[in-house]
């Protein structure tokens, strides 16, 4: 009878606890959030809306930017490609600063709001370059020269967008995922779906940006396109602001999130002559009851040298008060997490190279093909990128609602397959994409100069754009694997206080790839020019992009081999779950693969 009363009392307490979100979140008034009134999809939908708006702008501009630089500003292929990749690289490296500031100082919500305003400012500047007479480009029919003032203001607008992206992207992804409670089973599963639907929204933005926006740019004007994008961004930013009562806000850390990592490293170096105990339980840890703002992590055997930072030295009685001499197991494990993501981060750079070439060289390759579907309709080259978005939009719901439930039953994994396995599948698809692109380009180059006889007379034969459809389809499926997998990985596998920084690491890896893609073009151009005909000429018909693509196949194969080597030895983040009074979850550990 007494035991039954205890069980009933425990269930009542558990039910009461379930009403509240008992992690380190607060509501907009600084109180413990009520689960039913805050967070989950009703809050994250606002984040998805403003993120979609930002991505529509990005994809609409980036997808057709190389055409603008070559046609309006009259840059050659190599210069235009490099300028596009420098800008894209900036949009993916600046998040390192924005993510850090968002985590350490402003909070994620404020950073998203401020960055949205920067984004709107950049769009207004781009709009002005198309409507203000002194800022407008020169008429191409009259002169091949460019208005230098137009060029300066145009680039200022572009890099204002890059600054906005620097704060917006890492904080928007992490802030959206923050709306789901890791300690609640159903919400944790919903958060896994959130990353899929974030990819879906990005794909919708890619589809809209590379069809509607590109069509307006090509057949109406860039000014109208930029004005429409500014209006949409302003409206979604206002909507995001009015969602304030629904959000869950992570409490800002009491200290710089990078400081504990430095403390662990220094403490470990100070104790470098000590031997690690064979029993990890002898290492120092603060009880969970005294550590309300931080989830406790379990000890792992990787980077054993860092464990020395958690060794208690009896001769230093004041050691527990000095974090530069003694660190907890959780802080040691958080430092290990950061070191653990470095090899995975390195593999993202080559993903960035492939993505960069997909949105620049693939577009120029498309422009040199037969774009006509019928006598009256011609596809804008940049709109081929929309096929990628469409395929991802179709595949993501299938993966989330059909494939994942089946895989959960087969593997017993909450995610269906592990994060690294998902990324590995995506990297394999990148190899297939580059190989197919090389084969298509080889065939296209063989047709250059061939003539066919038609009713109108003799004309140059060109390869149909339809040949490029398979490579864009494979890219779309690959996005659902490697982009979603990388987002989830860099959110889950970093310390809880550094999740925007984690998203910034994901984006910066891609950014390094964009810069490396330009560097690779320069090297390839120099080397091939020295030994014969350059692979990167003034236009695609004079270039040998097929050989460049085969080079990318080889590099991607090496990248996949390195990734598999790391993945086979990888240890996932392990979190102590809260044990219950009835003895359930006796091991107290949750692995997050």
Polypeptide structure, described:
By secondary structure, this protein is mostly helical. The protein folds into 3 domains: 25-250, Up-down Bundle (Growth Hormone, Chain: A); 257-333, no CATH class; 335-450 and 462-569, MFS general substrate transporter like domains (Growth Hormone, Chain: A, Up-down Bundle). It is 63% helix and 3% strand. The protein has a two-stranded antiparallel sheet. Strands 3-4 form a two-stranded antiparallel ribbon. A two-stranded antiparallel sheet has the order 5-6. The radius of gyration is 27 Å and the shape is globular.
Give a quick summary of the entry.
The chain has about 600 residues and is mainly alpha-helical. Helix content is about 65%, strand content about 5%. The chain has 3 domains: about 25-250, Growth Hormone, Chain: A; about 255-335, no CATH class; about 335-450 and about 460-570, Growth Hormone, Chain: A, CATH 1.20.1250.
Explain the layout of strands and helices.
Elements: H1 2-18, E1 25-26, H2 40-71, H3 77-93, H4 95-106, H5 108-131, H6 148-177, H7 185-219, H8 222-242, E2 249-250, H9 259-270, H10 329-359, H11 361-367, H12 385-411, H13 419-447, E3 451-454, E4 457-460, H14 469-492, H15 499-531, H16 545-568, E5 574-576, E6 589-591
Antiparallel strand pairs: 1-2, 3-4, 5-6
Helix pairs in contact: 2-3, 2-6, 2-7, 2-8, 3-6, 3-15, 4-5, 4-6, 4-15, 5-6, 5-8, 6-15, 7-8, 7-12, 7-14, 9-10, 10-15, 10-16, 12-14, 13-14, 13-16, 14-15
Number of strands: 6
Percent of residues in helices comes to 55-70%
Write the CATH fold name of the largest domain.
Growth Hormone, Chain: A
Q: Spans of 5+ residues with little confidence (pLDDT < 50)?
A: 451-455, 579-592
Beta-strand share of residues: under 5%
> What is the residue-mean pLDDT, rounded to a whole number?
81
Helix and strand composition category: mainly alpha
> Any idea what the CATH architecture of the largest domain is?
Up-down Bundle
Terminal residue distance? 42 Å
SS field, number of helical segments: 16
Element order: H for helix, E for strand: HEHHHHHHHEHHHHHEEHHHEE
Number of individual domains: 3
Profile the largest sheet: 2 strands, antiparallel
Global Rg: 27 Å
CATH class of the largest domain: Mainly Alpha
The CATH superfamily label of the largest domain reads MFS general substrate transporter like domains
Strand order of the largest sheet: 1-2
Keywords: Membrane, Transmembrane, Transmembrane helix
Subcellular location: Membrane
GO cellular component, one term: membrane
Family: Belongs to the major facilitator superfamily. Proton-dependent oligopeptide transporter (POT/PTR) (TC 2.A.17) family.
């Amino acid at each position: 009878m007494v035991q039954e009363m205890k069980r009933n009392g425990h269930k009542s307490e558990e039910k009461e606890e379930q009403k509240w979100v008992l992690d380190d979140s607060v509501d907009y008034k600084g109180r413990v959030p009520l689960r039913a009134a805050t967070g989950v999809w009703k809050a994250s939908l606002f984040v998805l809306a403003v993120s979609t708006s930002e991505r529509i702008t990005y994809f609409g501009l980036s997808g057709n930017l190389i055409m603008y630089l070559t046609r309006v500003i009259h840059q050659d292929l190599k210069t235009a490609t490099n300028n596009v990749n420098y800008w894209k690289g900036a949009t993916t490296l600046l998040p390192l600063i924005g993510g850090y500031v968002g985590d350490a100082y402003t909070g994620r919500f404020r950073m998203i709001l401020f960055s949205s305003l920067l984004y709107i400012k950049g769009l207004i500047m781009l709009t002005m370059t198309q409507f203000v007479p002194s800022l407008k480009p020169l008429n191409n029919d009259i002169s091949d020269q460019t208005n230098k003032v137009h060029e300066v203001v145009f680039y200022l607008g572009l890099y204002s967008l890059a600054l906005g992206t620097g704060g917006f992207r890492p904080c928007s992804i992490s802030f959206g995922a923050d709306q789901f409670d890791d300690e609640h089973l159903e919400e944790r599963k919903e958060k896994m779906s959130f990353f899929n639907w974030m990819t879906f929204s990005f794909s919708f933005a890619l589809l809209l940006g590379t069809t509607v926006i590109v069509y307006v740019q090509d057949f109406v004007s860039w000014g109208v396109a930029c004005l429409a994008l500014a209006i949409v961004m302003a409206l979604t930013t206002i909507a995001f602001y009015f969602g304030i009562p629904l959000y869950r806000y992570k409490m800002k850390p009491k200290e710089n999130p990078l400081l504990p990592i430095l403390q662990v490293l220094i403490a470990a170096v100070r104790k470098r002559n000590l031997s690690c105990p064979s029993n990890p339980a002898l290492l120092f840890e603060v009880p969970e009851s005294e550590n309300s703002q931080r989830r406790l992590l379990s000890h792992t055997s990787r980077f054993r040298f860092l464990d020395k930072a958690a060794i208690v030295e009896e001769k230093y009685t004041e050691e527990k008060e000095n974090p530069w001499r003694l660190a907890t197991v959780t802080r040691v494990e958080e430092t290990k997490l950061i070191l653990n993501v470095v090899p995975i981060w390195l593999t993202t750079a080559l993903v960035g190279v492939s993505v960069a070439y997909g949105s620049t060289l693939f577009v120029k390759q498309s422009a040199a093909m037969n774009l006509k579907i019928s006598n009256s309709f011609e596809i804008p080259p940049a709109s081929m990128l929309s096929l990628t978005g469409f395929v991802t939009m179709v595949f993501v719901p299938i993966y989330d609602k059909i494939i994942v439930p089946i895989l959960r039953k087969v593997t017993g994994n909450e995610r269906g397959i592990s994060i690294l396995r998902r990324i590995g599948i995506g990297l394999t698809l990148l190899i297939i994409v580059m190989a197919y692109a090389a084969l298509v380009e080889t065939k296209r180059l063989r047709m250059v100069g061939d003539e066919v006889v038609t009713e109108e007379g003799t004309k140059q034969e060109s390869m149909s754009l339809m040949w490029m459809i398979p490579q864009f389809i494979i890219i779309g499926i690959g996005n659902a694997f490697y982009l979603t997998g990388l987002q989830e990985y860099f959110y889950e596998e970093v310390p809880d206080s550094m999740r925007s920084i984690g998203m910034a690491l994901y984006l910066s890896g891609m950014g390094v790839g964009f810069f490396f893609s330009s560097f690779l073009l320069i090297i390839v151009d120099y080397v091939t020019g020295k030994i014969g005909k350059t692979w990167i000429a003034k236009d695609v018909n004079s270039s040998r992009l097929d050989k460049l693509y085969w080079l990318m196949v080889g590099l991607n194969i090496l990248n996949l081999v390195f990734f598999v080597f790391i993945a086979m030895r990888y240890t996932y983040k392990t979190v102590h779950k809260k044990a219950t009074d009835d003895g359930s979850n006796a091991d107290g550990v949750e692995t997050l693969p």
